[in-house]
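note to self — DONT lose this again. spent like an hour looking for the file last time. sequence + predicted structure for the chain T wanted, 165 res
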Amino acid sequence: MSAARNGGRRAVIAVIGAGACDARVAEVAYEVGRLIAARGAILVTGGMTGVMEAASHGAHDAGGLVVGIIPGLDTSTANAYCDVVIPSGMGQLRNGLVVQSADAVIAVAGEWGTLSEIGLALKLGKPVVGWETWEPARAGVPSTEPAHAVSANDAVESAFARIGE
């Protein structure tokens, strides 16, 4: 199945999460990346380690296209599964580029950087699906965003449904 957007452009899904994660989180991120690629979409991440590397690995193993937008300028620091490395030179500010480039965002667990990406994505009106991630609140009231997923498959299916795919 191919994920095509308006004008035939392939869908772009960002996977965000911490640069360090345990094996359970890495397994979910790998499966999310694999399922994104299996749907014909392009995966974009921050291009580094942890969740980003695991998702990139999954998409790569499924024959997908993996784009990594890294914080520095040295492309050799990107994980080995990135097909395209974009050296931003922006440090953590590159988080905005990651979410802005995507049609939808999937947050897999995560830390402070993930929280910043969730906030930016929601501010930009991007659909966000989360697996065991931050639960933002507005004025002390829990938000309905991001949508919560119970599995890798649920996260991917929800992201594609939210962009009309």
